[in-house]
Every structure is written in C-alpha cells, then in structure tokens.
Design goal:
- The protein is an all-alpha fold and 143 residues long.
- It is built from eight helices and no strands.
- It folds into two domains: 63 residues, 434 Repressor (Amino-terminal Domain) (Orthogonal Bundle), CATH 1.10.260; 73 residues, no CATH class.
- It is globular and about 45 Å long.
- The C terminus is likely disordered.
Length: 143
C-alpha cells in the first residue's frame, strides 16, 4: 500500500481551513516543518502523525495511507472481494482489535461499523462536539 503522508497532511489541513503556520503552532513546530513534510523533503515522526490524526479527527491509517483500514469496506486491498469475503475480513479485523478495548468500547465499535452512513455521521458529529469540550475541561482542572 502506498504511503501518502505528504498528500494527506496537505489535504486534511486544507479541508480544515488551516494554514501551515496554524497547524505547526498546534503541533508545537514551525509552519516551515509542515511545508517540508508536504513537499516530501522530510517526514513526520509517528508521534506527530498521531497528533495530526487527533487534530483532524481521522485515524493514523488515514494520515499515512489515505484510507481507513479499520472501516473495511472502503479498503482498496479487498475492493474486488465478494460480499461474504468482505464480511469475513471485517469480522477478522474486528476480532484482531478486540483485545485493545474493554468489552463496552469494543461493542460500540462493532455497532458503529454496522450502522448506516447517516448514523456514522451523527456519531462523528457528537464525538467532535465532545472533543471540543475536552480541552476546556482540562484547563478547568488545572486551575
């Protein structure tokens, strides 16, 4: 699978109406470093990729490969598979990550992946709202 870090940084930054300096500031680095990544003169370390994924509310797979591996159905590596093969691959992928989560979180993931696109959009919107509140709560705790 082709690595698309440079393209995805620029795409995600532009989709979020963010300049290189603004993204750099949020990451604690210069806008010139962002430019260097986007122009393939250097690559970010994994910690920075994770931070950008959090800022843009996407997976690290999306930042690196331009596709979300856990979503399954959009993955190019099995786009030619039959529906039954796709379901088996999706289940196998979910089984592989089950140990990463407690049972309740895992069930939420399964439910999320099973819902309609409209349901996923609603869930994503609620999650984005919750994430926006988190820094404020974090600041309140410091005081």
């Amino acid at each position: 699978m082709e690595i698309k870090i440079a393209e995805m940084i620029k795409k995600m930054r532009e989709q979020n109406k963010m300049g290189q300096d603004e993204l750099g500031s949020r990451l604690g680095i210069s806008g010139k470093t962002i430019s260097s990544w986007e122009n393939k003169r250097s690559q970010p370390r994994m910690g920075m990729i994770k931070d950008m994924a959090n800022i843009f509310n996407v997976s690290t797979d999306m930042m690196v490969y331009g596709t979300d591996m856990i979503k399954g159905l959009e993955n190019t590596w099995y786009s030619d598979a039959t529906d039954k093969q796709k379901e088996n691959m999706k289940r196998r992928t979910l089984d592989d990550v089950k140990g990463w989560f407690d049972e309740e979180t895992y069930q939420l993931l399964v439910d999320y992946l099973s819902c309609s696109d409209e349901g996923k959009k609603w869930a994503n919107d609620r999650l984005r709202e919750a994430v926006k509140l988190y820094p404020k709560e974090k600041e309140d705790i410091k005081e």
